[in-house]
Structure to design on (118 residues):
């Protein structure tokens, strides 16, 4: 199991930037797929970006080119750099882990709120 704590959310203007961080604990971090997900008010949770344990990152179409996910396996940290933020990016952002052998993202943080305004 991986324990996750997100930070870095806040209020930002349209076109601005934020960097989210996720601190992870647990022995399997380095071999886990890590993901950023978000849930906007009244909507279902959706994936934003996934960093695969074997390398490579998959992005949601609407954030590709604006968001960059990175991970530091030595520090057990995951980041999401968000640039050119838009109203539609307003949501609670969650960090999640899919440990090796698991079929889904089963470990979740408590979330950090991002609000984009004019």
């Amino acid at each position: 199991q991986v324990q996750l704590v997100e930070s870095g959310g806040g209020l930002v203007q349209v076109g601005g930037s934020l960097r989210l961080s996720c601190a992870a604990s647990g022995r399997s971090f380095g071999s886990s797929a890590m993901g950023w997900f978000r849930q906007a008010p009244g909507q279902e949770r959706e994936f934003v970006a996934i960093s695969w344990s074997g390398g490579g990152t998959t992005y949601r179409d609407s954030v590709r080119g604006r968001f960059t996910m990175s991970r530091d396996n030595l520090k057990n940290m995951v980041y999401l750099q968000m640039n050119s933020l838009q109203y539609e990016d307003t949501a609670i952002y969650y960090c999640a882990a899919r440990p090796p052998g698991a079929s889904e993202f089963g470990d979740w943080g408590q979330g950090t709120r991002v609000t984009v305004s004019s």
Summary: The longest strand covers residues 18-25. The radius of gyration is 13 Å. DSSP finds no helices and eleven strands in the chain.
